[in-house]
Amino acid sequence: MLEIQHVTKAYKDQIVLNDVTLTLKEGIYALLGPNGAGKSTLMSILSKQLNFESGQVLWEGKDIQAWKEDYYDLIGYAPQQQGLYDEFTGRRFLTYMALLKNVDKKDIDQEVERVASMVNMQDQLEKKCRMYSGGMKQRILVAQALLKEPKLLLFDEPTAGLDPKERVSLRDIFSKLAKDHILLIATHVVSDVESIAKEIIFLKQGRIIAQGSVETICQETALSLEDVYLNLFQKDTNL
Ligand SMILES: Nc1ncnc2c1ncn2[C@@H]1O[C@H](COP(=O)(O)OP(=O)(O)OP(=O)(O)O)[C@@H](O)[C@H]1O
Ligand SMILES: [Mg+2]
User: Fold this and answer.
1) Which pLDDT does position 69 carry in this prediction?
2) Atom of ligand 1 nearest to the CA of 34
3) Which pTM value belongs to this model?
4) Half-sphere exposure of 227 (CA within 13 A, CB side)
5) Rounded to 5 degrees, what are φ and ψ at 4?
6) What is the 36 CA–ligand 1 centroid distance (Å)?
């Protein structure tokens, strides 16, 4: 269980996360919000790449600051700004990431095959990353996040720029992972998460402004999730 308690983050005078409190258990949590809402900032904090001013984040009851290197074994992160090594083959990229994650050398080949199969990329591993389509790039990024079987998966706009077929394919992968993982997926696209998310979290200017299951949100508002999203954010010029 991951508990985010009253987390506030500012860059100079600008507060970008404002008293964010959330508890994440197994299943899919969708973080929905327009550009600049603070989605990636929250992801960076949860992956311990960014410090914050106040509040705390607890993993299994223990502050993530108190977790040492072993915290990195618990999380898999596919960031929004994706660095793929263009000249690497998919296999080399995953092997390299496995080395960075300290996967035992003797287990690396098997682990690379395992994560590649989970995203249906096992037959594409000899191609160079620059040859991959956008969807294949996203899938290999998801694959690296799965190395060493982390419990908490952070996916920052994993479906950006993908065609509908690839969106469905990734959605199915996330859905399978939901059984025994905690997934936090940041997105602008309601339809990517509507059918799979246990909970929707609407983030606006660093604040959680609405939260709940799709069913609850839609019942309470008597609107579709897409319309709720539009109502909450349409006034934003930077949507
Ligand atoms: N390194 C930084 N220095 C200063 N301000 C920053 C920095 N990184 C992000 N910000 C600001 O923090 C706010 C939140 O940014 P963030 O990237 O978390 O938003 P986001 O919800 O992920 O947006 P998007 O949908 O565009 O990815 C923005 O106003 C952004 O300008
Ligand atoms: Mg972002």
Assistant:
1) 86
2) 25
3) 0.93
4) 8
5) -105, 120
6) 5
